[in-house]
Model the fold of this input.
Amino acid sequence: MEKKLKDQVAIVTGASSGIGAGVAKKLAEAGATVIVNHPVPSTQEAADAVVAEIRADGGQGISYQCDVSKEEEVIRMFADLARQFGTVDILVNNAGLQRDSPFNEMTLEQWNFVLGVNLTGQFLCAREAIREFLKRGPVPQRSSALGKIICMSSVHEVIPWAGHANYAASKGGIMLLMKSVAQEFAPKKIRVNSICPGAIQTPINRQAWDTPEALQSLLTLIPYQRIGQPEDIGKAAVWLASDDSDYITGASIFVDGGMTLYPGFSTNG
Ligand code: NAD
Done:
């Protein structure tokens, strides 16, 4: 595989499982040194296992514990990594979670918890990344852009989701956070885009695929007739991080097997 991200340093938040792990492995395969971020001591082992896989495949990476919803931890992570690796070139804002509830029963704690990780976490990491890109300045032999930020959004930045108002609000928020930051920093050659996954087979949505009946019901929402895999998102992330997408900023790229194509209308509505 061509090393399109050679000599670049990438942080992937929430990378000890699921999509983040898939993205971390693909970025490493493309030559980046990857920081496998994870939130708490109990996720250390899983993060180390992702790093071990990256190294076994000839790539480079380390694990780093930081809760992205905590300002002082995020500031410390970027400072530590800049000291250890010189700079950061790519941020994949992937960490995210769900706390589902009927809206009339949703607690403020469930609302704040989801918004705190999914939206405030992306704000905090993006802000530190932009500060680092501006401080470092251009390195044209590594990348045409000054830096790249990829936000993990969801099809739920456009598809409303009953019973998940906090999650859908966080993803809708990511859309305009991403576009506003992309607009503000395009003149500085910083590219900011989102990947909007459909249904990807990970721990976050296990109940939607772990029985044949659940999977069959899920497939009625996916015209392409298969559930997505973390590598599907990893490949899109490599492309968005590389110079192959150098003229793309402020875009939401849907990687969803057609989930946003209103499949209910495929048989005449
Ligand atoms: P996942 O549960 O495997 O991954 C989420 C990761 O975020 C976990 O590794 C978790 O440890 C980490 N995390 C949680 N809180 C954190 C914090 N405070 N700081 C740092 N890390 C934290 O699920 P996933 O499906 O891989 O989800 C990854 C992202 O993709 C999420 O943003 C999710 O909303 C998004 N997404 C997933 C799907 C899907 O179908 N799986 C679809 C659309 C969007």
